Every structure is written in C-alpha cells, then in structure tokens.
Amino acid sequence: MFELSFGKMMIIAVVALIVLGPEKLPKVARTLGHLLGRARGYANQVKQDIDREMQMDELRKLQEQAKDAARSFETAVNDAGRSVEQEAASVQSSVNTSLAQAESDALAAQAKATHAVENSIAAPHAALTAQDEVAALEKSIAEQASEQIAEIKPMISAEQMTASLPQSPPANSPESANGADAAKKVA
Length: 187
What we know:
The chain has 187 residues and is mostly helical. The protein is 85% helix and 0% strand.
C-alpha cells in the first residue's frame, strides 16, 4: 500500500524545503503537526465512543438476563406457593372429613349407649351398670378415633415441609423480633 521509508521522507523534506523555502517551512510543519494531533485526538475519541457503546450494549444484555432470571424465579415461587396452598386445602378437607366421621360415630355410639342404658333400666337383671356401659362406650370411641387418626397419612413429610419454608433468623436478632411482632399481629 502506501509506505514511507526514511529515504522517501528525506526526499519529501528536501522538496518541501525547495518549494516552500526556509522561512515558511517551520510554520507549515507546525500547522501540519497540529492537524495531525487533532486527527489523532478525533480518532481516539471515536474509539472511546465505540467502546462505550459496546459496554452499554453488554450491560443492557446483562440487565435483560437478570430481569428474565428474576421473572422465572418469581414464577417458580408462585407455583410452589400455589401447590403448597392446594396441599394445605386437601389436608384441611381430609381432616374435616375425619372429624365429621368421628362426630357421627360418636353420636351413633352415644345413641347406642343411651339405648343400652334404657335397656339396663328396663332390665334390672343386666350384669353391667350404666356407668360401666358408658365407660366401655367411651373406651370404644377413643379406640376408634385413635385408629382413624393413625390411618391418616401425611401428604407431605416433615423434611419436605421444613425445606419449603424460609429459614428464620436467630431468635435474638432484630429481624426475628420484627417477625414475631408481625406473627402476633396476624394472629
């Protein structure tokens, strides 16, 4: 392409000296130096502007990635919260069903006890007294209730429950005091 060797530069300098003369040559050289300095300054400024724009583009991309990650995390947390709420609702309904069943069993047992008491009153020759029958009936109800409670299987284990709950701060920290105050307000 365009090469300037030392020999070519010397030829250009001699021609400039002859054409311009010794009086104008220093002024022209000084002006030419100032123009070259300005051109270099403009070139450096353009490079810096391009570098800044590239960095801004990279920062925008990182910001978008961070926003996407935050959205996906929020979605995951909301989904987990909904599933926990559904599990809690199903556990609540099964507990309510069990309680209703236990109450109906207790009413039926009470009716049987009342009938047995009436029969024992009507038939004084029965070996058990009314109090013995009531005690036996209470024992039977307690056994049935404990069997029903034993049959209820937890839908989520204690380990899964503790893993899904956020970690609480230590009891003596100000954060736990604020949390305890908030829990009292909610209750």
